[in-house]
Design goal:
The complex is a heterodimer. By secondary structure, chain A is α+β, with helices and mostly antiparallel strands. Chain A folds into 2 domains: 101 residues, Roll (Ubiquitin-like (UB roll)), CATH 3.10.20.30; 129 residues, Fumarate Reductase Iron-sulfur Protein, Chain B, domain 2. Chain A has 9 helices and 7 strands, in the order E-E-H-E-E-H-E-E-E-H-H-H-H-H-H-H. In chain A, helix 3 runs parallel beside helix 6 and helix 6 crosses helix 9. Chain A is elongated, with a radius of gyration of 20 Å. Chain B has one domain: Up-down Bundle (3 helical TM bundles of succinate and fumarate reductases). The radius of gyration of chain B is 17 Å and the shape is elongated. Chain B starts with 11 loop residues before the first helix and ends with a helix. Classes of the chains: A alpha+beta, B mainly alpha. The interface between A and B is medium-sized, with 19 and 15 residues.
Chain lengths: 236, 115
């Protein structure tokens, strides 16, 4: 039986002067494995291979990577979904600095997440028990709160590649809208004031790469459109 | 909040709105000009000159010129901030673009009212 051809991006800054692709032959025994399983099999051949993983079921968001040209979570992506012509090429998430092999420095990604103040802000006195929402108000948060911050969307976005220090990126903006849309949050105007410059939100060109790659099926482009609507409504 | 001083509206929101409004005006103007050319087969200088001597056409044309200037400023400014990473080069190119847009706009106005 022919083995799966796996091409892996390798880079160890302590020993390599430049990144290179290393070829592996992985015996899948004809099974439709997840890409993460193939990585484990490759690691058995070369112990030095570095990648992040944790829950192995699409919840933690650790193993975001570029598989045959498309970002996704290795743990929930079956080979049948990405492999073409018995060949699998794995690279780190594009646009972020590589620490080693498939491990990237997520610093800029988290910095943009921190910038949108991803926590509930309310200046009214706290009620005795809890802040209530109607079912309709709660419904507005569906499709927003599910994000696991795997960075697949932001690192597939050219606007984020060119200006990762200024453009918040789809992941951050989805979370930004999650708090803008929350009926319990009273910092709406302050949040909007932080977003009206030409970069933070408006560098989005609506090409929807983020929507195409999101492993959780979320729609950051729609959330960005909603933020624009709120900015427009507040400023005209 | 990211500070910017060379974009047209000083705000992403106003740039974004200007870009869309100017695009609609330019689309209408283009459709009108193309339609006019298609519907006047034996077009001569007198008809063309007559069209542009009408006050409404001058207002429409000036509106289109200003829209083009705004549209180009917003669009090209964005391109420079994406691709020109050296501050000196970026600011120089932005100033050249803004200057060229100003010259073309004034030139367009003199053509419109000069004849």
């Amino acid at each position: 039986m022919s083995k799966l051809q796996v091409s892996l991006y390798r880079y160890n800054p302590e020993t390599d002067s430049a990144p290179y692709m290393q070829e592996f032959q992985v015996d899948t025994q004809g099974r439709d494995l997840m890409v993460l399983d193939v990585l484990h099999l490759a690691k058995e051949q070369d112990n030095g291979l570095a990648y992040r993983r944790s829950c192995r079921e699409g919840v933690c968001g650790s193993d975001g990577m570029n598989m045959n040209g498309k970002n996704g979570l290795a743990c929930i992506t079956p080979l049948s979904e990405v492999v073409k012509g018995n060949k699998l090429t794995l690279r780190p998430l594009p646009g972020l600095p590589v620490i080693r092999d498939l491990v990237v420095d997520m610093g800029l990604f988290y910095k943009q997440y921190e910038r949108i103040q991803p926590y509930l802000q309310n200046d009214e006195p706290a009620p005795a028990i809890e802040r209530l929402q109607s079912p309709e108000e709660r419904d507005k948060l569906d499709g927003l709160y599910e994000c696991i911050l795997c960075a697949c969307c932001s690192t597939s976005c050219p606007s984020f590649w060119w200006n990762p220090d200024k453009f918040v990126g789809p992941a951050g903006l989805l979370q930004s809208y999650r708090f803008l849309a929350d009926s319990r949050d009273t910092a709406t105007r302050d949040r909007l004031a932080e977003l009206q410059d030409p970069f933070s939100v408006f560098r989005c060109r609506g090409i929807m790469n983020c929507v195409a790659v999101c492993p959780k099926g979320l729609n950051p482009t729609r959330a960005i459109g909603k933020i624009r609507e709120m900015l427009l409504a507040d400023a005209t | 909040m990211v500070t910017n001083i060379t974009n047209l509206g000083r705000s992403g929101l106003s740039d974004w709105l200007l870009q869309r409004v100017s695009a609609v005006i330019l689309a209408l103007y283009t459709l009108f000009i193309v339609g006019f050319l298609l519907l006047s087969p034996g077009l001569d200088y007198a008809a063309w000159s007559g069209l542009f001597s009408a006050t409404w056409m001058r207002i429409f044309s000036l509106l289109a010129f200003i829209s083009l200037a705004a549209h180009a400023w917003v669009g090209l400014w964005t391109v420079t901030t994406d691709y020109l990473k050296s501050t000196g080069v970026r600011v120089a190119v932005q100033l050249i673009i803004i200057l060229a847009i100003f010259v073309f706009l004034v030139w367009g106005i003199t053509v419109l009212w000069g004849a």
